Amino acid sequence: MTAPATLGGSTRAESWSQVVARVARHREYGLGHRWLDLEVPRSFGRPVSGQFVQILLGAPAPVLLPRPMSVAAVRERGDRRVLGFLYGAVGAGTVALSQQAVGDQVEVLGPLGRGYPLEVPGTPVLVAGGRGVAPLLFAAEALKRAGRRCEFFFGARNKAALVGLEDAQRWLDRVGGRLHLATDDGSRGLRGTVVERLERAAGRLPPPLVIHACGPHAMLEAVGRWAMRRGWPSFLAMESVMACGTGVCRGCPMARSAEAKARYRARRGDSPSLLGNAEYAMCCTEGPVFRAEDLDWDKVD
Ligand SMILES: Cc1cc2nc3c(=O)[nH]c(=O)nc-3n(C[C@H](O)[C@H](O)[C@H](O)COP(=O)(O)OP(=O)(O)OC[C@H]3O[C@@H](n4cnc5c(N)ncnc54)[C@H](O)[C@@H]3O)c2cc1C
Ligand code: FES
Questions:
Q1: Which residues line ligand 2 (CB under 6 A)?
Q2: How does DSSP assign 172-224, residue by residue?
Q3: Distance CA 43, CA 50 (A)
Q4: Of all atoms in ligand 1, which is nearest to the CA of residue 87?
C-alpha cells in the first residue's frame, strides 16, 4: 500500500508497506531495555531518523494491536534491510516482544510519520533523555553522511540511567559528534537537567542552534520552551498510544497551537484529513516529530 500524498512535509513523503520481518538479533541492553534487529525485504522503504514502525506480533499474542517503535538503526544486508530498535519491556505487548527469539517472525508496518528535518541549516543539537538516545544516534549518523557534526546532549536521573552510554560514546566518536552529559544527582556530567546543560553550552556554539530531541514528554516540553524563548527551531519526537499509525483511527491526537490551527485552516479549512483536523494533529502522521511552536504545551500529558 502507499501512504496518502498529504504526508509530504518538511522531511519527505514516503510510501509505507506491511511486511513479514524476521528477528535477526535480540539482546539485553541494560536497565530493562533490549536491542532488537528485524530483517525486512529491501522493498521496505528506508526509514529516516525520527520515523517509526508498527510491530504486530503473530497469533496467539496477548495484545490485539501493533506497538509503535522508533527506528534506531538501518543497515543493508544483501537483499535485506535490517532495522534496529531499542525498547523497554513495560507492558503486555513489549514483554511479549521481548520473548521473540532469533528466527521468529513479526509483522512490520512502515516507515511511518515524519522524521527530523536534519537539513535545517544551523548547528545540529541533539538532545536525548533515556531510551531517546537511540533514534538520535541514528540522526547523528545521518548528519555525518551529510558532512555535518552534531552536539549531543544526553540526560538522565543518574549515571546508571544513561541507557547505552558506552555505545553512545563509541558511536559519537565514529561520527564526530561531541557528547555533553547531565544527571540529576551529578553522578555523571553536569549535576542538573539536560536543559541546564544546554543553557551552559549554548553560548559557546555557533548560532543558530537547531534542536532535535527525543525523550520523556516533560523533558521535551522543557527543551521546546527553552528553544522557543531563544527563538531557535526545535523538533521534538512525541509519543501517543497508537492503533493504526496511519491517521485513520484518530487515536493519537495532539492539540495544535493557535499558530498551527490557523495554518491548518488556511490550507484545509475545517475539513479533517489524515493529518488530523484544525484543532488536533495526529501524532502518527503529522508527527511524531513536531516543531515546538506547533503544539499547545498546556495540553500535552
Ligand atoms: C512514535 C512512537 C515511537 C516509540 N518508540 C519507542 C521506542 O523506540 N522504544 C520504546 O521502548 N518504546 C517506544 N514507544 C513506546 C511504546 O510503543 C510503548 O511503550 C508500547 O506501546 C507499550 O506497549 P505495551 O503493550 O508493552 O504496554 P501497555 O500495556 O500498552 O502499557 C504499559 C505502560 O506503558 C505506557 N505506555 C503505553 N504506550 C505508551 C507510549 N506510547 N508512550 C508512553 N507510555 C506508554 C502505558 O500507559 C502503561 O503505563 C514509542 C511510541 C510511539 C508512539
Ligand atoms: S494511530 Fe491511528 S490515527 Fe494515529
A1: 242-245, 247-252, 282-284
A2: HHHHT-EEEEEETTSSSSEES-HHHHHHHHHTTSPSSEEEEEES-HHHHHHHH
A3: 20
A4: 11
Confidence of residue 31 (pLDDT cuts 50, 70, 90): confident
Instruction: Report how far ligand 2's centroid is from the alpha carbon of 12 (Å).
Output: 19
CA of 255 to the centre of ligand 2 (A): 14
Is the pLDDT score of 6 beyond 90? no
Identify the burial level of 99 via C-beta atoms within 10 angstroms of its C-beta, where 0-12 means exposed, 13-18 middle and 19 or more buried. Answer: exposed
Tens digits of residue pLDDT in 78-115: 999 999 999 999 999 999 999 999 999 999 999 999 99
pLDDT by residue (tens digit) across 49-60?
999 999 999 989
Q: How far is the CA of 253 from the centre of ligand 1 (A)?
A: 16
Q: For 215-277, where are the alpha helices, taking DSSP H only?
A: 217-230, 258-268
Atom of ligand 1 nearest to the CA of 88: 11
C-beta atoms surrounding 200 within 10 Å:
13
Nearest ligand, CA of residue 61?
A: 1
**pTM of the predicted model, to two decimals?**
0.94
Alpha carbon of 30 to ligand 2 centroid (Å): 31
For atom 30 of ligand 1, the residue with the nearest CA is: 91
pLDDT digits (tens, 9 = 90+) for 210-222: 999 999 999 999 9
Per-residue pLDDT band for 1 (boundaries 50, 70, 90) equals very low
* Residues sharing a CB contact under 8 Å with residue 241, sequence separation 6 or more, in sequence order: 251, 252
